[in-house]
């Protein structure tokens, strides 16, 4: 019974200690990524905006989000740098996919559908 309290403390403190270490490691990786930004990088902000870095400052980043549209963001708002594989896979659209055919319904079917309840 005397060893129960110290054992419980260890059981609770070890996972907390490991969690804090993991958070510090992740924060260090994000800070390193934000510090290594360069002009031309394609990035995603924390709000999900896709853009290309066109200018850098110590605290801010200018992103081109559309042709001739440049916005200024804090470096801390950059969540990740997109690689070429990410950029091309999201831009590709299935060219060979057949277009969905529109099916017209009769006036009677429309009336039935609208009055169903």
UniProtKB/TrEMBL annotation:
Keywords recorded for this protein, A-Z: Cell membrane, Membrane, Protein transport, Translocation, Transmembrane, Transmembrane helix, Transport
Localisation per UniProt entry: Cell membrane
Annotated spans, Disordered: 81-117
InterPro entries, per the entry: Preprotein_translocase_YajC (IPR003849)
SMART domains: YajC
Membrane topology: Single-pass membrane protein
Protein's name according to its UniProt entry: Preprotein translocase
Organism of provenance: Nocardia vulneris
């Amino acid at each position: 019974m005397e060893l129960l309290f110290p054992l419980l403390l260890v059981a609770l403190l070890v996972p907390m200690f490991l969690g804090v270490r993991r958070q510090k490691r992740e924060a260090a990786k994000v800070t390193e990524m934000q510090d290594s930004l360069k002009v031309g990088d394609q990035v995603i902000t924390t709000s999900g905006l896709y853009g290309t870095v066109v200018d850098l400052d110590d605290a801010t980043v200018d992103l081109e989000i559309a042709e001739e549209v440049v916005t200024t963001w804090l470096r801390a708002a950059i969540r990740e740098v997109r690689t070429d594989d990410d950029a091309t896979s999201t831009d590709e659209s299935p060219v060979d996919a057949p277009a969905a055919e529109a099916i017209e319904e009769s006036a009677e079917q429309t009336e039935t559908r609208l009055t169903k309840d």
